[in-house]
TrEMBL record, chain A:
Signal peptide: none annotated. InterPro entries: PepSY-ass_TM (IPR005625). The chain crosses the membrane at residues 12-36, 149-174, 195-219, 348-368, 416-434. The keyword Membrane applies. This is Peptidase. It comes from Thauera linaloolentis (strain DSM 12138 / JCM 21573 / CCUG 41526 / CIP 105981 / IAM 15112 / NBRC 102519 / 47Lol).
TrEMBL record, chain B:
Residues 1-21 form the signal peptide. Keywords: Signal. This is Carboxypeptidase regulatory-like domain-containing protein. The lineage of its organism: Bacteria, Pseudomonadati, Pseudomonadota, Betaproteobacteria, Rhodocyclales. It comes from the Bacteria.
Length: 571, 104
């Protein structure tokens, strides 16, 4: 007869102790997560430049080519990289363009008037900051892993545990839906207890979503850490065009490309119910145009087409139907966590639920200070006490003015607040984060400009992205170099390649393809393990008319760190 | 010989992570089946990839044999009478070269 209440008591204690030791940290994560949910809308409120105000009620939106034409007219040196707009939007189009100094600038273009309402260099953004603060405490990722990511995602375990144990101990919890109770005239302990239960009841689906998606983030981190890839239906090859699919121009001529309006039409032809919300214009002559829109059949995910920009042929279409069930599940986790797949209404629901969850964590602590310690002591002594009765019980002995020596008193007073020490992490990493997000930190050819030289008629600058020896991945060594071709050469140069050692005559042997923008291209070049320190890098530039020019760059000039590494290995 | 391939994201701060996350690694191998025939296989990320173009070229880059990998990701050809190399290109920059002296 006593078994059931005893079991309930232990469930109750488990519920109490799950979040207690980490309450401060959990509170912080819930709070920042709530803000992150509406961070874009906060920017909308604060910055009129990002709003899409129509000049008249019946105003029609401009086409995508018209928006590109505005950028081309007002910023002729800009190379547009991508255009995007949030789902079901009250936002202006964000046109991201790169400039000759390699700076990336976001232009906010009114979709009705084509007016560039504002421009700001890519760098610190409130939205990314609050997301990084919430998601990984600003602790940088190294090889895809951040301790901050683990610390945050591990919270999914007490969150899930709290939900399950909470539903067990809260008998007939569903009554809270129909007869909500929030007593404000019975003292603070009753108020916080009622609030905790009420918020919990109304947040059950939200807490479950946060716990499950958070658990997935934890699993994702472990998989990434262990270098384990889940089965994928992604194409076996990168989505770039084959060499034969890129036309060759007449000497001095240009190759025609389709416009974005045409690309949007191809998207509609492929996915009739999908509105384009993102265009990527490509990273090399071999890049398709990628058009992305929210899937009609499963709004959590997007559907995309990769379009040959010369012929308009659809190279690949990514639909919901050609994803596996596992992919649909795992890829749905992030939008389900962020709530950014319907529009403002759902975001506000997420925000309110997030604030409720934050309040639950806080109220949970207050309840503990008034109840749990005593209940624990009672349970350990085998005594029983009905849960609600203890709400109004006097303060437990453990919360009486601490006795004993100073360290013991300190421990007793502060033990459950120690998780707040984890917040030292974002404070410590904040200067690093801000330095990394400075626009100036995102420009340039890397840590070292290696050489400026002529390759046939074209002048180029080679950069070393990081001054360091090659990195070891999957039994190979590779190193990132950057390249800028002169502005006048840009229309003539179709592609650039880099490799260690002299290529053969066939252009296909030229090595790694540079990709990025004409002002800054990247190539991750494989460095042979037995490379000699006096080896040469060979740069190949291929013109749109089929001409080809090559130049050798001594490794010691391109990357002294790599030459030294090679020298040490050869000894 | 293997060649790495990577796709860079626009976000440069995660550039090096992208290298890891979206790496494509080409592989190719040729063996001498008998005095006359050479059989080559190729693919990406350890998986044979049918349909990839494979060329056998002379030292002066003239194409001697042109073909595509079969359903097993393999292609056989008669040993050329002149020095040669084998080239399999999956995509621009994603290439494997095999010299005749590397073939056992």
């Amino acid at each position: 007869m006593n078994r059931a209440p005893s079991s309930a008591r232990w469930w109750f204690l488990a519920h109490s102790w799950l979040a207690l030791p980490v309450w401060a940290f959990l509170f912080f994560v819930c709070l920042t997560g709530s803000i992150a949910t509406v961070s874009q809308e906060i920017v909308w409120l604060a910055d009129p430049a990002v709003r899409a105000n129509p000049p008249a009620a019946d105003a029609e939106m401009l086409g995508y080519d018209a928006i590109l034409a505005v950028i081309a007219r007002e910023h002729p040196e800009a190379v547009v990289r991508r255009i995007s707009r949030p789902v079901k939007s009250m936002f202006a189009w964000t046109v991201q363009a790169e400039y000759p100094d390699t700076s990336l600038v976001n232009h906010y273009v009114n979709p009705y008037t084509g007016h560039i309402q504002g421009s700001e260099p890519e760098g610190f953004s409130f939205r990314q900051f609050i997301r990084a603060l919430h998601g990984w405490l600003l602790v940088p990722f190294k090889e895809g892993v951040s301790p901050g990511w683990y610390a945050v995602s591990l919270l999914s375990l007490p969150l899930l545990g709290s939900l399950v144990t909470g539903l067990v101990v809260y008998k007939r919890f569903w009554r809270g839906f129909f007869r909500p109770r929030l007593r404000i005239d019975r003292g603070s302990r009753v108020f916080w207890g009622d609030l905790h239960r009420l918020a919990g009841i109304w947040s059950i689906p939200f807490i479950l979503i946060m716990a499950v998606t958070g658990l997935w983030f934890l699993i994702q981190g472990v998989l990434r850490h262990a270098d384990i890839e889940l089965p994928s239906t992604s194409p076996a090859l990168p989505l770039i065009l084959s060499r034969d699919d890129v036309p060759q121009a007449q000497p001095g001529g240009q190759v025609a490309r389709i416009g974005l309006d045409r690309a949007a039409q191809i998207m509609r032809d492929t996915f009739p119910d999908v509105d384009a919300s993102f265009f990527s214009l490509g990273e090399s002559a071999f890049s398709p145009i990628r058009v992305v829109g929210q899937a009609a059949s499963w709004p959590l995910l997007t559907e995309s087409v990769w379009i040959n920009p010369y012929s308009g042929r659809v190279e690949f279409a990514r639909s919901i139907a050609n994803r596996s069930g596992l992919e649909i599940f795992t890829q749905s986790m992030r939008p389900l966590h962020a709530g950014d797949f319907v529009g403002l209404g759902l975001k506000l629901v997420y925000f309110v639920c997030g604030v409720l969850l934050t309040a639950m964590v806080g109220s949970g602590l207050l309840i503990w200070t008034k109840r749990t310690a005593k209940a624990t002591a009672a349970a350990l002594k085998g005594r029983q006490r009905e849960g609600d009765e203890s709400i109004d019980a006097p303060l437990p002995a453990s919360l009486a003015p601490p006795e004993g020596n100073a360290p013991a008193r300190w421990w007793k007073r502060w033990r459950f607040h120690l998780s707040a020490l984890l917040l030292i992490l974002p404070v410590a990493w904040l200067p690093h984060y801000l330095a990394q997000e400075k626009p100036a930190a995102k420009t340039g050819l890397g840590q070292r400009v290696a050489a400026e030289f002529e390759v046939g008629p074209w002048s180029v600058t080679l950069g070393e992205w990081r001054v360091e020896p090659p990195k070891h991945h999957d039994d190979e060594y590779d190193k990132v170099f950057t390249l800028a071709v002169c502005q006048a050469c840009i229309p003539q140069v179709k592609a650039a390649y880099l490799r260690v050692g002299r290529p053969r005559g066939d252009v296909r042997t030229s090595g790694e393809l540079f990709s990025g923008s004409p002002y800054r291209r990247f190539a991750n070049v494989q460095i042979p393990a037995d490379v000699r320190p006096d080896a040469d890098l060979w740069l190949t530039l291929e013109g749109w008319d089929g001409t080809r020019h090559r130049a050798a760059i001594p490794l010691v000039l391109a990357s002294p760190a790599t030459a030294q590494w090679a020298d040490e290995r050869s000894r | 010989m293997k060649k790495g391939y990577c796709v860079f994201a626009g976000l440069l701060m995660i550039c090096s992570q992208q290298v890891l996350a979206h790496g494509y690694e080409m592989f190719g191998d040729c063996i001498r089946q008998d005095a006359k025939t050479i059989r080559c296989t190729g693919g990406v990320n350890g998986k044979p990839l049918p349909g990839l173009r494979i060329d056998v070229l002379s030292d002066d880059d003239a194409i001697l044999v042109r073909g595509r990998l079969d359903a097993d990701g393999a292609f056989s050809f008669d040993t050329p009478a002149v020095p040669f190399y084998v080239l399999i290109e999956a995509k621009p920059g994603l290439v494997v070269e095999i010299d005749d002296w590397e073939i056992d």
